[in-house]
Design goal:
The mean pLDDT is about 95. The chain has eight helices and ten strands. The strands form two sheets. A six-stranded antiparallel sheet has the order 1-10-9-4-3-2, with no helix packed on it. It has a four-stranded antiparallel sheet with strand order 5-6-7-8. The chain starts with a helix and ends with a strand. Helices cover about 50% and strands about 15% of the residues. The longest helix is centred in the middle third of the chain and has 29 residues. The chain has about 290 residues and is of the alpha+beta class. Strand 7 and strand 8 form a beta hairpin. It folds into two domains: about 170 residues; about 100 residues, Rieske [2Fe-2S] iron-sulphur domain (Rieske Iron-sulfur Protein, 3-layer Sandwich), CATH 2.102.10. The chain is elongated, with a radius of gyration of 23 Å.
Length: about 290
Amino acid sequence: MPAIAAATRPLIHWIQRQKALDPLGEKVSGWVHAATRPKSVKNVLSGSWLGHQLHPMLTDLPIGAWGAAVALDLTGGEKTAARRLVGLGILASAPTALAGASDWSDTYGEDKRVGLVHALANASASALQTTSWLMRRRGHHMAGAALSLVALGLTLSSAYLGGHLSFVRGIGVNRTAFQEPADSWTDVATDAEITEGTLRRVEVDGVPVLLVRTAGTVRALSAVCTHAGGPLDEGTLDADGCVTCPWHGSRFRLQDGTVDRGPASVPETCWDVRVDDGRILVRPAG
């Protein structure tokens, strides 16, 4: 096992076991849920308008600014430029934290604990960078540079936890990315089986598909929520032509699979439907 993985794995496992973090995690996620209840807020922070999650993209801004400031400090660069970069990172960290909090609030158990430590480490790093900016502004450049260096190390350590959540635990990964059904029409049900307003799950080459009849028309989407893999067939059908995932409340339009409300950021795969001699056949749209 590589040295870094051997050193970090026990620490991550220790964090995952810390149930003492749960009360704080639940309280904070409750605040986040309340703040992100409006659809427009949730969609902006989830990246529903972007096509993938917003938070990973935003992290480049504060890390890049703070990293550049430290580089200037270590190479004898212009002090005013370094201070401005620290300030830019502080400003960029606010929307980054908001987007991350929105994503984190929809996790559970071990993932929520690791995410909470990730957030606390980032908050501490931002506080250190703010102190660094103030000290630099008062002419204490060396002390400010030292604080920025410590803060950057804390930020990178936190980023490691974020990478664990994304690439090891699969938080935020499109759960339908590797579904590859055949392009041909597949017979999945009789027309009479799909009654008005009900959610019916069928399978095509091992891929779960949701069938819904609304206003007499049968529509089909992939049945696995792109956000966290929730079963859309166990969700609810809304009067405005959307289906809501039972796990985290993501809403998808039946007409084209687009995201109506986050936390999902990736649209559902939409399927073509036709009725032939009383049988319903589907194939991936496209």
